Structures are given as structure tokens and as C-alpha cells.
Amino acid sequence: MSKDTNHPELRSLLEVTEVGEITISTRPTLNSNDTVAQAAAEMRKESHGSALICEDGKLVGIITERDLIKFISDGFDFDLPLTEVMTKKPVTVTTHDTLFYATESMHKGGYRRLPVIDKNGNPVGIIDVKTISHFLVEHFATAVYNQASHDNTIAKNREGA
Amino acid sequence: MKCPYCAHDNIPGSDLCDACHQPLTPHESNGSELEESIIRHSISVLCPKDPIEINKNLSVREAINKMTDHNIGCLLIEENDQLIGIFTERDVLYKISDDLSKLNDPVEKHMTASPQSITKFDSIAYALHEMDLGGYRHLPIVDDHSKPTGIISVRDILRFLCVKFAELKTGLEA
Fold first, then answer.
1. Is A37:A28 a contact under the CB 8 Å cutoff?
2. Cβ-proximal residues to B149 (8 Å cutoff; 6+ apart), any chain
3. Which residues of A touch B98 (CB under 8 A)?
């Protein structure tokens, strides 16, 4: 445990905080018959780089902005149904998993975001690296906000005259 | 004496590091070991990737092909050896995906001009702060002449934290 309760340690933060506390909640509206263009529109609308695809309330796939890049590069048609292009049965975390577990899963799988499901297996949202880093920054205000850029702290030329 | 910020080997007795001008005196502990480590370590310990640089006149389509070729989500636009812009997959989603005819535009039209950058001497904590403040996932690293030398992502920082965390957990020296 931390010696100073005003500065909770990162290690305990990651171990005690549950994914559900910082999940970006989404209202999954896409199903596998929707098109890539519809998924892109949904992502733009939600200002988020991925969208969950569901059927009968259960998660069946995920599509991300990285996928869009691949489609464009491969010359794919944006009218294709998602079922043909989505990542099926993506790796998920549950709302009760720890942040540390989620971070490790991302690290191992090379993912930047993971769908979050509740204990009944229903999708509730997405957790991504940016949300985790923002959470850490908020809890490390003293360490993070007091940092000056090396570049800006040293005057390269004598000022004035 | 090794600089705690950039690891430059200094002459014993120096007050400031020759390379990065940071004080060589050990600073006061004001938090956990992990918190300390992101202040103490410069982003160089993250082993930044080499940047993929492109010309501003390249078409958006060719830029996207470059992203998939290199399996990277972010390209730097360079002119006269200076960083002038950044083009990311986020730009593709927001500015291109609603109208694919824009694929023929020069990348200059859709890039983010004069992006925020950092130097290799900046601390991990500083990089984390900049990314959080601006909502960036990537930060270009430039040298004294604004020439891009590398790129780091928020994932690199989280990976560093996880590795440090595991080291502390198993009781190894951080």
C-alpha cells in the first residue's frame, strides 16, 4: 500500500480498479447485415475508432478504424456487409476484470481496445488505451502535470538584445 | 555520474547533465516507485519506432497504402527535413471515410499541420501529459532542428508501465 494516501500507487490502482468503472458505454446499433459504410458513419457519429456488432443482444464482432484502412488499401467496397469483414468473436474483458488484466490483454494481443461484456455476456461498451491513460493521468496529477518539456525549459539563445 | 533523465555519462562532480541540462542531484521522492519511474525515465527508454515519412503531395490513397504496408496508424509529413504535418487513421475515419473520392486528394489537404511534438529527452510523464491533453495517440519525436527522429504511442507507455509493474510485483529492482 502507498505510504501517502493522497497519492495512491499506480500498482494498486491498476489492481483494484475494475474495467467497468472506466468503460466507454456504447449502445450497439450495428448488426452483421449492416454495411462497412454504415459502420464508418456510426464511428464518426460516436467519435470513436471502433464499433461493436451484435445479434440478438450478443456480441458477434468488432470493426475498427484500422480495418477501414485495410479495406481502402485492398480496394474493398464499402457496401459489403459487416459479416464478411468484421473480426468475429473478439477477445473481451468483463466489467469486473481489473484494469491490470485489461492492460495485459491489450499488450499480449496487440490490441488498442477491447469490448467489455457484463456477467451475463451482454456487451456494455469498449475500453481503450486512451481511456486507461487518461484515468492514470488523473490519478497522477502531481507526477504528470509538473513535467516541463526539456525543449521549452532551456533557452537556446540569449533573450533580449 | 549517469544522468537520471537521459542516462548520459557525466564527469563526476557536475551539477547539471551535459546532454540534457537536468540537475544530477537525486530528487525528492514524492510518490510510488512507478510514479517516480515515469518522471525519471526519458521517452528514449521506450525505444521509439522510426517514423514513416511521406511527401505532402502524395495522394491520400498512397498514404493509406503506406500505413498498411508498414502496419502503422500514423505517418509524418516532412518538408525540407522538417516536420510539417501528421496523418493518422483517425484522419481517415473522420475526413475520408464519408467520401472516398477524397482518396485522390494530396495528403496535405487532410493532414494535421504543425503537430505537437516532443524531444527524446522529455520524460515519459511529460509525454503522457501531452497525449492526454491533446487527445493524441501518437507523438512525433523531433531533434533540435525539428527533424523527425521517431514516434511513440500511448501503447508504448502503457507497455512500459506494465513491464515496470511486473518487475515491482516480483520484487526485482525497478
1. no
2. B48, B51, B120, B141, B142, B143
3. 40-41, 44
Please tell me if residue A33 touches chain B, with a CB cutoff of 8 Å.
Answer: no
Q: Which residue of A has its CA nearest to B121?
A: A150
CATH code, B141: 3.10.580.10
Residue with cell 526519458: B42
Nearest chain B CA: its distance from A101 CA (Å): 10
In a domain, B15, yes or no: no
Contact B32 A103 (CB under 8 A): no
Task: Decide if B19 is inside a domain.
Answer: no
Query: Which segments of A15-155 are extended strands (E)?
Result: 24-25, 50-55, 58-64, 87-88, 93-94, 113-117, 123-128
Question: What are the structural domain ranges in chain A?
Answer: 10-147
The CATH code of the domain at A10-147 is 3.10.580.10
Matching residue, cell 508501465:
B161
Q: Which of A44, A112, A148 minimises the CB distance to B93?
A: A44
Structural domain tally of chain B? 1
With respect to residue B164, please indicate whether it lies within any of the assigned structural domains.
no
**For residue A116, what are the β-bridge partners?**
A93, A125
Mutate to test the interface with A, among B93, B107, B137, B141 (most CBs of A within 10 A): B93
Residue B62: which domain range?
45-159
ipTM score = 0.75
Q: In tens digits, what is the pLDDT along chain B, a chain of 174 residues?
A: 777 667 778 887 777 878 777 777 655 444 567 778 888 899 999 999 999 999 999 999 999 999 999 999 999 999 999 999 999 999 999 999 999 999 999 999 999 999 999 999 999 999 998 999 898 999 999 999 999 999 999 989 888 887 777 776 666 443
Whether the predicted model's global pTM rises above the 0.80 cut: no
Is residue B130 situated within a structural domain? yes
